[in-house]
Amino acid sequence: MTIELSGIGATPRVGVGTVVWHRGTTDLSEPPDPKTVDVDEQLAAFEAACERAHEELTDERERAEERVGDDEAAIFDAHRAFLDDPEITGSVETAIGNGLPAPHAVQQAFEDPIARLEGLEGSTAERADDLRDVRDRLLRILTDRERTDLGDLPDGSILLAERLAPSDTARLDPDAVAGFATLFGGRTSHAAIFARSLGIPAVVGVGDELAQVGDGREVLVDGEDGVVIVDPDDAARDRLVGAATAVTRDRVSTADGRPVEVAANVGTLAELDGVVEQGADGIGLFRTEFLFLDRDSPPDEDEQYDAYVEAASAFPGDRVVARTLDVGGDKPIPYIDAPEETNPFLGERGIRRSLGPDADLFETQLRALLRATAEVDDLAVMFPLVARVEELDAALLRVEAVAEELADEGIDRAIPELGVMIETPGSAFVAEELATRAEFLSIGTNDLTQYVMAASRENARVADLHDPLHPPVLRAIRRTVEAGHEGDAWVGMCGEMAGDPELTELLVGLGLDELSLSAVTVPDVKARVAECDAESARDLAERALSAETRDEVTSILEG
Description:
By secondary structure, the protein is of the alpha/beta class. It has helices at 39-68, 70-73, 75-83, 86-97, 102-118, 123-126, 128-142, 166-170, 190-198, 234-244, 272-277, 301-313, 351-354, 359-375, 389-408, 425-429, 431-437, 445-452, 471-486, 504-510, 522-531, 534-546, 550-558, and strands at 3-6, 8-11, 14-22, 157-161, 177-182, 202-204, 218-222, 227-230, 252-253, 259-266, 283-287, 320-323, 379-383, 417-422, 440-443, 490-493, 514-517.
């Protein structure tokens, strides 16, 4: 008998397969008599567990960055911060001092912080899963428990769980996992975000009824409509056919004829085929960091040249935008001398390093990009974390100097279309001046939101502030779009906001010329663009911009 369960669609895809349950909790026995606990031994065990957890998180961040991109992988920085949170570590140490073994002390110390987050509203409540992830990691290490290998599930698996932590989801193999569903969670949870980046059909927040679905049952997961169907019949399977026909490789325009480019964010060359299959209009953000990670020395000019040519060749006639190296204190690379910083996101990163300590790496990258531009059409380059006009001027001068060097050496070269990422309030305020110098502006909403709202995306306690629907962020976006167009520059967006189909009409109304997003959401966003009436979208945007609070913005969008 077919059973249909409702939840929250996290990925606009449909998959069908066989249920595999993941039960990742650690049950502890009753603690021993406090008098029998060796406090020093347990404190040492906790310290060692924290060190090992740090090492695991560093490795997982690097792997996640390769698979889903830096913005999404940054959650592991937040998990490392939790390990060092004095409120939590102090509670653990106090509990151990009172005679609790380290595992029981960890479990107790996380109870109140998790409960406080769960008692809040919106995306902040979903950050409780991040705390659970850190807690469960420590418990697994302290109890010497084997880690379930979610990266080695049988082909055609539908993974069911109470909740999936970011570290769980990041290990899933999209070629093996047909989908997943969870009892708890929301669309902005990190598990849902990772699912979209990996292209895995997912439904979250299904509720207790999901727990009644046993291992081995056949289940269909519809991440578009937020439905889980147990023992699907032929009618239910028609959803698979409908999902397969949603991809279009044609460029799209609004219903009244305004073109909007829908490109993809790409983090590795291995993603190119999948991006093409999803019908992306090129690449709006090609994260070149993958070339520099997981190695002991930087890639040479020829290796980079080959990578840029390969990426651009996958999209003949479409633009491929390569972001120059964006690293800093938050992304340690062995051969880059980056000092530890109290707040690396406000420190030496992006264009600041390229014009400073990483000038040699920057020059090599520019040489490869200019050579590639002479070989392929429609390659563009943008500079990250620009906050001042002087930084763009210096970068442009460096491009001209490299072009002259290549000419003197008799090497074919061409200067690509050059742009700036708008990620800081500083760049938003001087967008007019930047647009007269650059050919395009690309808004990185993840960083722009955290800087405008003074809310680190690694800090779960202020997660509610890290939402681009806050009026100050929307107004910074509108200001950038108007300034860009005034300076004859096209304006795109490459943050998580661009990939939310529920926000497509708003972004069209704000005047964006291009949206760049995870490949899996390209078909859905294209469909939403085609449904939009540009005039109605502008009216929606004006009403949202006039709102005074995020709740008002949300009500306007829902209405």
